[in-house]
Amino acid sequence: MIKVSVMYPNTPGARFDHEYYRDQHMPLVKARMGDSCQYYTIDKGLAGGAPDAPATYVAMCHIFCDSVEAFQAGFGPHAEEIMADIPNYTDLTPIIQISEAVVRK
């Protein structure tokens, strides 16, 4: 299983609409990807590791798929539509990482 992490840096003055992201954007991603997306999670940044430090990321999502190929097959045909929705909830540029989910308990 792989995890596609999409992370939005916590940049002062940036705009991020958590409700739109939760209620509109990520359901759109899941609907377009269909069974290629096993499930997804959304994180809302609260704090950093040091006392009183801000969160490194204002938000993250993690999309779980069987393989990189499954992700590409589900996301690729809809990439333009999904990416065009980003300005509806943020002016940030996301950072993306694909990882192997090594342990799942």
Outline the secondary-structure elements:
Elements: E1 2-9, H1 18-33, E2 39-44, E3 57-65, H2 68-75, H3 79-84, E4 95-100
Antiparallel strand pairs: 1-3, 1-4, 2-3
Structure commentary:
- It contains three helices and four strands, in the order βαββααβ.
- The chain has helices at residues 18-33, 68-75, 79-84; strands at 2-9, 39-44, 57-65, 95-100.
- The mean pLDDT is 96.
- The protein has a four-stranded antiparallel beta sheet with strand order 2-3-1-4.
- The chain has 105 residues and is of the alpha+beta class.
- Helices cover 29% and strands 28% of the residues.
- It is globular and about 40 Å long.
- The two termini are 13 Å apart.
Task: Supply the key terms.
single chain, 105 residues, alpha+beta, four-stranded antiparallel β-sheet, 3 helices, 4 strands
Distance between the termini: 13 Å
Number of strands: 4
Element-by-element helix/strand order: EHEEHHE
Taking pLDDT < 50 over at least 5 consecutive residues as the criterion, the unreliable ranges are none
Overall geometric form: globular
Largest sheet report? 4 strands, antiparallel
Calculate Rg over CA atoms: 14 Å
Which structural class best describes the helix and strand composition? alpha+beta
Strand content: 25-35%
Mean pLDDT: 96
Write out the strand line-up for the largest beta sheet, numbering strands in chain order.
Answer: 2-3-1-4
Total number of helical segments?
3
Helix content: 25-40%
